Amino acid sequence: RTVYLNGDYLPEAEARVSVFDRGFVMADGVYEVVSVLDGKLIDFEGHQARLKRSLDALEIRNPLSDDEYLTAFRELVQRNGIDEGLVYLQVTRGNPGDRDFAYPPADTPPTVVAFTQSKPGLADNPAARTGLKIVTLPDERWGRRDIKTVQLLYPSMAKMAAKAQGADDAWLVQDGTVTEGTSNNAYILRGNTIITRELSHDILHGITRQAVLRFADEAQMSVEERAFTPDEAKSADEAFITSASAFVMPVVEIDGTPVGSGKPGPVAARLREIYIDEMRRRAI
Ligand code: PMP
Fold first, then answer.
1. Active site residue ranges
2. What are the per-10-residue average pLDDT scores of the chain (284 residues)?
3. How far, in Å, is the centroid of ligand 1 from the Cα of 107?
């Protein structure tokens, strides 16, 4: 596989980052995941906008222009022959040459890494036909989940705990309400209303969420941005998640309780179809 590192395209075994890199010793970096369908990038602009917000929040200099990121992503997709899959991008505060809590001088070059993963069946995903089983777990992450940092240990622990309970993933609960999934935004449907938590520091501002809510609005569905409890979710008509790599994915069970019919719901299926069709058309 060919990967990108600070301006170079290298075989993965030759791409090396310092042991002093702030990303490695401090999880001091941010990332983005952009899906690829038909060899093209899905919602590149949305992910670029959030990358800038994350970098700004951490005062990490953005080392590349939008065009430079676009060129690098396209080059990786082409060199690695990706038809369906994703591009992972990580920008860290770079290598200060020593370990220190203080940020290094502002002229320290950030480290930019990007690579691809091939995922055939991303659009025609069999999981969309069966739906996901979710368990709820306490949200024990830090308080700035709106910044997409590479500090992913709690989400990893929660996914492992969910799998150990025979579920596919977890929804995280804080003060009695669902914040989001370990790596996705969470939704329920009551009657004709799609309900999803409002934006704040408590959740990642999903780029897929933004697009799906826009499409729901265009399709004259009603949307309520508010917190909901696990109990409300268990008695909802449907439940689903969104993320850049899962698109829209139905949830059919929460803590062992079937949601609605216990089968993927029609609204989640419709939103998945609209999202994939529209985003495929706009891919670059
Ligand atoms: N919340 C969390 C915690 C996530 O990790 C992700 C995906 N990285 C999302 C939500 C979904 O965001 P997006 O739609 O931009 O992939």
1. 148
2. 98 97 98 98 98 98 98 98 98 96 95 98 97 98 98 98 98 98 98 97 98 95 97 98 98 98 97 98 97
3. 30
Q: What is the pLDDT of residue 147?
A: 98
Q: How far is the first Cα of the chain from the last one, in angstroms, to the nearest whole number?
A: 22
Question: What pLDDT is stored for residue 283 in this prediction?
Answer: 98
What is the C-alpha to C-alpha distance for residues 43 and 40, in angstroms, rounded to an integer? 10
> For ligand 1, what atom is nearest to the CA of residue 244?
16
Residue nearest to atom 3 of ligand 1 (CA): 183
Euclidean distance between CA atoms 219 and 199, whole angstroms: 22
Q: Which domains are assigned to the chain? A: 2-118 (3.30.470.10), 127-282 (3.20.10.10)
* SS3 assignment, position 58: helix
Asked if residues 77 and 41 have their Cβ atoms less than 8 Å apart, the reply is yes
Chain mean position to CA 61: 22
Shortest-distance atom of ligand 1 to CA 46: 15
Q: Residue 254's pLDDT is what? A: 98
Helices (H), the chain: 22-26, 44-58, 66-79, 127-130, 153-164, 207-218, 230-234, 266-282
156 within 8 A of 166, measured Cβ to Cβ? no
pLDDT of residue 82: 98
Spell out which residues line ligand 1, taking CB within 6 angstroms. Answer: 33, 180, 183-185, 204, 206-209, 242-244
Closest atom of ligand 1 to 152 CA is: 5
